[in-house]
Amino acid sequence: MNDFINIELQYLALCLSTLFALVNPLGITPIFVAMTDKYSNEEKIKIAKKGIITGSIVLIIFTFLGSIIFQLYGITIEAFQIMGGIIFFRSGLRMLDAKVGRSRTTETEREEFKESDEIAISPIGIPLITGPGAITGVLILSGKMPSDYSLAILLLAVIITMVVFYIILRTGNFLSIKIGLTGMRVIERMMGLILMVIAVQFVINGIETIINRL
């Protein structure tokens, strides 16, 4: 029983550290503040809530679809680990340079987003909050479940990550003033380093499993 609890707690820690590094709330918050600068505080809270709900729904869907995608396309978790590790390493490297790796938008699109009521869904919900890295992350984590009960652990990690993200977005202006842009960038670089370590470990685990099967 104790071994089961320890394994699940380790899996929860892996899920939380991976997801928090991938969604990168401290890196996204300054962008959110800039994109919603013309809105009132009440509207900002509404946009943040809708964006978080959108991102959460996407991650939860891919959490359930993970095993189906692996089976449908005959993809091994090892292959996905190696590929995901490469993607995570690149994202971590960008975070070390204090760059936010997300889908690019043109100046015209950005202006349209500012005038649109759907800004909370796109680009804030997708791909700002939930980008390719976060989606890849839940797919890999869903394939690394140590037991049948681990699905609940992964869902809990997604919910915890998004709740923390929402709190950070709600206090975005306060954080920007108190911590400052430099402070937020320092924390972002630390998360980037953690993400790179996780990425390397994913690649090592994938290669080790493949070698052991030979």
From TrEMBL:
Major localization class: membrane
One CC-aspect GO term: plasma membrane
UniProt subcellular location: Cell membrane
Transmembrane helix listed as a keyword: yes
Keywords: Cell membrane, Membrane, Transmembrane, Transmembrane helix
Transmembrane segments: 12-33, 53-73, 119-143, 149-169, 190-211
Family in the record: Belongs to the UPF0056 (MarC) family.
PANTHER family: UPF0056 MEMBRANE PROTEIN YHCE (PTHR33508)
Protein name: Uncharacterized protein
Source organism of the structure: marine metagenome
